[in-house]
């Protein structure tokens, strides 16, 4: 059995749905695209992932010869409606940047261990353009919503690649857009028009971006009021452009087994609880799903405040009143925004009291803006 066959069969054996291999060459088209859109993607280009370096694998691993790329189908079980209204499916599936002690983090580690047993050196911390890699290997094609699609699965997939120092047998590319001719369902459905043309996304308008990239250490924590209004109840990720896609309907309508862990999580997963979350709730219900980007609970609290404001239900005013006393100015400020969105005399009284005692300039500004909306 050839080295290539051993690698591909092992990948399928441990749960990957598709596997392909390409030479470890540079990706000049990706470098050019990121460079041309620096203003939109500066948070990523200048961040810890170093994507421009990763797009030239041999700059980080001089011995690199091949890239093994895999597709994991994360939509094999049902996602509770109570969660999909708030959290993207890939995060519910616990597969995005999963730690090694979780099953979806153990899988890539098993792959690396197997490759090393075969005598391969495996690159570490090389951030590849995963969708482009997988398309070059012929295991995915593109959607106009910017997602990669795998035949027979759809776009609910997670891509992982491994750079090795061995020459292998290479696969043929699939640089096609597999969407129905003339379809623009994703562009029409996006509440913020983040998909400004087919295959082009302005991340700063994307709801998903605004739920988790907007952190002080990454892109600043401020979310524009116009975007807040359109975030609905999303607190981590957004699947709208995938949910409306004709290519995903078969999987979305399929009768799947329940994920019993998610069923348990959904029972405790309320926006009000997240707004004023305890450390125990964070550790037992939030972190197991969303250990990928956000490390501080205040950002989830901010997102929950926005979601409650968008619901517009006065029943949540007491919860927002509690949040107005939170030690984090970020939480107080967005709770004020939510109270202003809900409106009414009770909300106005809470905001007025908050304005008298508030010391944070950010929170005071949000309180004053909220009061103006009520008046």
TrEMBL record:
Keywords in alphabetical order: 4Fe-4S, Iron, Iron-sulfur, Metal-binding
Gene Ontology BP, a term: tRNA queuosine(34) biosynthetic process
UniProt-listed InterPro entries: 4Fe4S_Fe-S-bd (IPR017896), ARM-like (IPR011989), ARM-type_fold (IPR016024), PBS_lyase_HEAT (IPR004155), QueG (IPR004453)
An example molecular function term from Gene Ontology annotations: 4 iron, 4 sulfur cluster binding
Domain of life: Bacteria
Record's keyword annotation contains rRNA-binding: no
Domain (4Fe-4S ferredoxin-type) ranges: 166-200, 223-255
Keyword NADP: no
Protein name: Putative Fe-S protein
Species of the source: Desulfosporosinus meridiei (strain ATCC BAA-275 / DSM 13257 / KCTC 12902 / NCIMB 13706 / S10)
Taxonomic lineage of the native organism: Bacteria, Bacillati, Bacillota, Clostridia, Eubacteriales
């Amino acid at each position: 059995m050839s080295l290539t066959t051993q690698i591909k069969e092992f990948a399928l054996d441990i749960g990957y749905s598709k596997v392909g291999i390409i030479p470890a060459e540079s990706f000049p088209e990706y470098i050019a695209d990121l460079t041309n859109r620096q203003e939109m993607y500066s948070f990523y280009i200048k961040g810890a992932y170093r994507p421009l370096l990763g797009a030239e694998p041999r700059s980080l691993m001089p011995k690199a010869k091949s890239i093994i790329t895999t597709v994991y189908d994360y939509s094999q079980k049902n996602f509770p409606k109570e969660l999909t209204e708030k959290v993207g499916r890939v995060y519910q599936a616990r597969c995005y940047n999963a730690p090694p002690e979780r099953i979806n983090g153990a899988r890539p580690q098993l792959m690396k261990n197997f490759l090393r047993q075969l005598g391969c050196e495996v690159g570490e911390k090389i951030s590849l353009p995963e969708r482009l890699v997988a398309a070059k290997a012929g295991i995915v094609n593109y959607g106009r919503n910017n997602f990669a699609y795998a035949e027979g699965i759809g776009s609910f997939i997670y891509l992982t690649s491994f750079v090795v120092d061995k020459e292998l047998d290479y696969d043929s590319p699939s640089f096609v857009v597999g969407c129905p001719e003339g379809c623009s369902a994703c562009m029409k459905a996006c509440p913020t028009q983040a998909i400004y043309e087919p295959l082009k996304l302005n991340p700063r308008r994307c709801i998903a971006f605004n739920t988790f990239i907007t952190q002080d250490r990454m892109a600043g924590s401020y979310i524009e009021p116009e975007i807040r209004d359109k975030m609905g109840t999303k607190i981590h990720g957004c699947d709208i452009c995938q949910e409306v896609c004709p290519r995903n309907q078969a999987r979305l309508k399929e009768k799947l087994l329940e994920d019993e862990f998610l069923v348990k999580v959904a029972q405790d997963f309320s926006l009000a609880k997240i707004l004023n979350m305890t450390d125990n709730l964070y550790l037992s219900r939030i972190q197991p799903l969303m250990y990928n980007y956000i490390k501080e609970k205040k950002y989830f609290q901010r997102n929950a405040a926005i979601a409650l404001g968008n619901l517009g239900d006065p029943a949540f005013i007491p919860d927002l009143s509690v949040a107005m006393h939170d030690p984090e100015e970020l939480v107080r400020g967005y709770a004020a925004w939510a109270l202003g969105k809900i409106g009414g005399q009770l909300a106005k009284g809470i905001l007025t009291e908050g304005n008298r005692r508030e010391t944070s300039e950010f929170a005071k500004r949000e309180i004053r803006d909220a009061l103006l909306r009520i008046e």
